[in-house]
């Protein structure tokens, strides 16, 4: 190599999530929802494990977004990081003790969806666009329904989780696919 040649280092973390990362996150979310809807009669432990894995992926996505995205708004960065950490903790609890976690999963899911909805709507209003706002509204409404009505039968809760994940994942996937390609 000559002294005038330079090598470009590949960027592992960019200033904003790539379209592919956003699409991947959306598709994982849709897959988690579809898996829940296809097997509605599965044991609570299976639902806890599927959602635990999903929440860990979602928490990692939100944390990476908080740490790598070029966000001028400090409050938004902190909200993304707090949401990411909350989702990872919820996911780990689901995987650690699925049977014990099932007693509190409804409240934890409801809270995480409410927080996610608020963060998404805040981000959408601050330049994230209409699909981000739509995803936030859906997440907020799903979380509120779960918190207001925690006692419905397991089948109704599983159905609500599955449909919510499919819709939220679909909006994130569409948002990622519709995003402009990085220069």
Helix-strand layout with pairing:
Elements: H1 19-38, H2 44-68, H3 74-96, H4 98-128, H5 130-148, H6 154-178
Helix pairs in contact: 1-2, 1-6, 2-3, 2-4, 3-4, 4-5, 5-6
Mean pLDDT: 81
- Tell me the Rg in angstroms: 18 Å
> Helix/strand/pairing class, anyone?
mainly alpha
Tell me the strand percentage band: under 5%
Which range best describes the helical content: under 10%, 10-25%, 25-40%, 40-55%, 55-70% or over 70%?
A: over 70%
Please tally the helical runs, counting DSSP H or I stretches of 4 or more residues.
Answer: 6
Written as H for each helix and E for each strand, in order along the chain, the element string is HHHHHH
How many separate domains? 1
* Distance linking N and C termini: 27 Å
Outline: globular
Major sheet, described briefly? none
- Uncertain ranges: none
Task: Describe the structure in brief.
With 183 residues, this protein is mostly helical.
Describe this structure in words.
The chain is mostly helical and 183 residues long. The chain has one domain (19-178). 78% of the residues lie in helices and 0% in strands. It has 6 helices and no strands. The two termini are 27 Å apart. 34% of the residues are buried. The model has no long low-confidence stretch (mean pLDDT 81).
Descriptive keywords:
single chain; 183 residues; mainly alpha
């Amino acid at each position: 190599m000559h002294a005038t040649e330079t090598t470009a280092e590949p960027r592992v973390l960019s200033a904003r999530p790539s379209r592919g990362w956003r699409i991947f996150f959306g598709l994982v979310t849709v897959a988690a929802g579809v898996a829940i809807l296809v097997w509605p009669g599965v044991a609570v432990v299976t639902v806890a494990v599927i959602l635990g894995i999903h929440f860990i992926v979602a928490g990692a996505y939100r944390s990476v977004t908080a740490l790598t995205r070029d966000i001028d708004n400090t409050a938004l960065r902190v909200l993304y990081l707090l949401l990411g950490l909350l989702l990872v903790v919820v996911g780990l609890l689901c995987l650690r003790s699925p049977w014990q976690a099932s007693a509190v999963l409804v409240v934890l899911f409801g809270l995480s969806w409410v927080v996610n909805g608020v963060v998404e709507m805040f981000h959408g209003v601050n330049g994230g666009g209409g699909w981000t706002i739509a995803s936030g509204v859906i997440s907020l409404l799903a979380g509120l329904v779960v918190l207001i009505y925690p006692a419905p039968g397991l089948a109704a809760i599983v159905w609500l989780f599955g449909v919510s994940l499919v819709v939220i994942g679909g909006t994130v996937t569409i948002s990622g696919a519709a995003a402009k390609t990085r220069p």
